[in-house]
């Protein structure tokens, strides 16, 4: 399963970051997290989970939309309106933030869930039933009748009795 992340406001060299094979590459990290909406993503069991840091964001400002396999997350952190305040230091970022995640087709996006708690947006998407690994039973066809049933009319069977 792969995930491609896109920050539409980042410079061209960091437009796309991939977290390849979440199930098989434990410990994979992104060297430069996206400013304003850093993310951790992983697969646990039959769910893909992403945590996006959005401290100080009003939950009502968070918008999520899904178009095809692209999940777009937008949020806004407003500048505090303090009457009579004379700012001495203003280091915390404010404004609108957008992040796009291109989801693998093996995810069941119809069952996507999102929650916001303590400044962290958690998105959980189950793996689609058709994409889950399964065991296939191989039967042995060692009787002449079974061999004959698999031959094409007019041809000799692959195995003769």
UniProtKB/TrEMBL annotation:
Segments forming domain SHSP: 30-141
InterPro entries: A-crystallin/Hsp20_dom, HSP20-like_chaperone, Small_HSP
Pfam families: HSP20
Alphabetized Gene3D superfamilies for the sequence: 2.60.40.790
PROSITE patterns: SHSP (PS01031)
This protein's name: Hsp20/alpha crystallin family protein
Family matches, as PANTHER family: HEAT-SHOCK PROTEIN 20 FAMILY MEMBER
Sequence similarity: Belongs to the small heat shock protein (HSP20) family.
Residues in the signal sequence: none
């Amino acid at each position: 399963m792969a995930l491609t992340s896109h920050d539409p406001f980042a410079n061209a060299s960091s437009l796309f970051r991939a977290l390849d094979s979440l199930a098989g590459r434990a410990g994979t990290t992104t060297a430069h997290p996206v400013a304003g909406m850093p993310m951790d993503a992983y697969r646990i069991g039959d769910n893909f989970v992403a945590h996006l840091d959005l401290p100080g964001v009003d939950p009502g400002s968070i918008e999520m939309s899904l178009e095809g396999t692209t999940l777009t997350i937008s949020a806004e952190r407003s500048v505090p309106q303090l009457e009579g305040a004379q700012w001495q230091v203003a280091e915390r970022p404010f404004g609108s933030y957008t992040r796009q995640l291109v989801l693998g087709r093996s995810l069941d996006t119809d069952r996507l869930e999102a929650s916001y708690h303590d400044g962290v947006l958690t998105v959980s998407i189950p793996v689609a039933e058709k994409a889950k690994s399964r065991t296939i039973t191989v039967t042995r066809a060692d009787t002449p009748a079974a061999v004959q049933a698999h031959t094409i009319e007019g041809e000799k069977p692959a195995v003769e009795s």
